[in-house]
Amino acid sequence: MAGDMEADEGSTAEAAYRSALGAIRARSGYARGFISDQSAGDDAARLGLRRTAAVLDRLGRPQERYGIVHVAGSKGKGSTCALLASVLQAAGHRVGLHTSPHLHRFTERIAVDGRPVEEATFATLTGRAVAAAEAVESAEPHLGRVTAFELSVAMALDHFAAVGCDLAVIEVGLGGALDATNVVDPLAAVITALDLEHTAVLGPTLEAIAAQKAGIIKPGRPVVVAPQPAGALTVVLEAAERAGSPALVCGRDWWVSGSWRAFAAEGPWGTHADLRLGLVGPHQVENAGAAIAASWLVDAVGFPVPAPAVRAGLAATRWPGRFEVVPTRAVARCVDGAGTEPGAGPGLDSDPSGGHVPVAPADAAAGPPAAPAGTREGGVGAPAAGGYAILRPDDRYPTVILDGAHTPTSAAALAATVAAEVPGRRAVLVLGVLADRDPAALARALA
What we know:
Belongs to the folylpolyglutamate synthase family. This protein is 37% helix and 12% strand. Helix 8 (230-243) links the parallel strand 7 (223-225) and strand 8 (247-249). Strands 4-3-2-5-1-6-7-8 form an eight-stranded mixed β-sheet, sandwiched between helices. A three-stranded antiparallel β-sheet has the order 9-10-11, covered by helices on one side. A two-stranded antiparallel ribbon has the order 12-13. The protein is built from twelve helices and 13 strands. The chain has a domain at 12-316: 3-Layer(aba) Sandwich (UDP-N-acetylmuramoyl-L-alanine:D-glutamate ligase). It is α/β, with parallel strands linked by helices.
């Protein structure tokens, strides 16, 4: 009897979760899109910002109840968010993390202390957000219909307040200035590396894209700037100056040197030496530097982040689909990788079992210990939906590397990491690309 009751409860919870996904799906558009249709023009996108703010007003302005770091960029923003959230969690803070897209389950987009939101809670959040959205649509029909992405942003911000987060790290969906996440008033902003992407929406030049990304800089609030092409850097710094926002710029105010296995970060915080990363690849060192700089800014406004937390948080970080290595015999499904539209993912909820399959970690020589992909335990840096592991070679099966590189420069960084980490092994490329990408350019960079 007890077993039957538990089964009934489980089926009821699953039905509620699926119903919540259906409510979100009903509001999606923009190709298979999940983001607001910024290509409809600036005025339409600004209506999206007003809708999101109005929904949050109906929910009691939850985003004002904790500190926020807002992260935009073309490359490395997801990794930087994961690194920063792990560091802040290691410092003892309760940390929310909102990212997109998800890899397997929608709940991955809304995580607290490394744990995705529970399905039952997700269903409740959806109900609250939909009710608020319907109230806004009824009272202010001129604003238009609240979109799926706007709804998901409101859900995340609502959840972080409900569970008592001290801090939240919020990743931009697309662009920055007109993205639905840009309703927050953050403690600090971060601009990761910029590149040509989504040019039909963001503009045809790096400078135009930089202007959109720099739109998350708020008056008087500091901004961390990762290494940038000269023209893009000029645009970002001009935006910061107009806003009266102090800028911490890589190569001017902070520096990193070394590899993901051992590197140093120097800046206004002093020097952190012999740091190790839980993410593979030389490009992750720059992302880590941006996360360290952001954590220093958070510390400066009253959320302590001691040096040991920086060290522990960086080493514990896990982030799926970033040089994630699995053996062929363990691959039960595929990650939608290169060219994924922000906010789209491989469907609203593509994997009913959730998470990745386990993989075996390498010995210590391969780098810091890696949690098995799909680990759900709590603790510092527990992955939202998996993690990487460098595996011992197994002659019976090829090794599969999953990565989400979606620009030529990101693809080149992936190729360099493969050459460095698994040298001398024959590689076969399987590439999935959406219509707004250049598959030939990506393939050339990976060759």
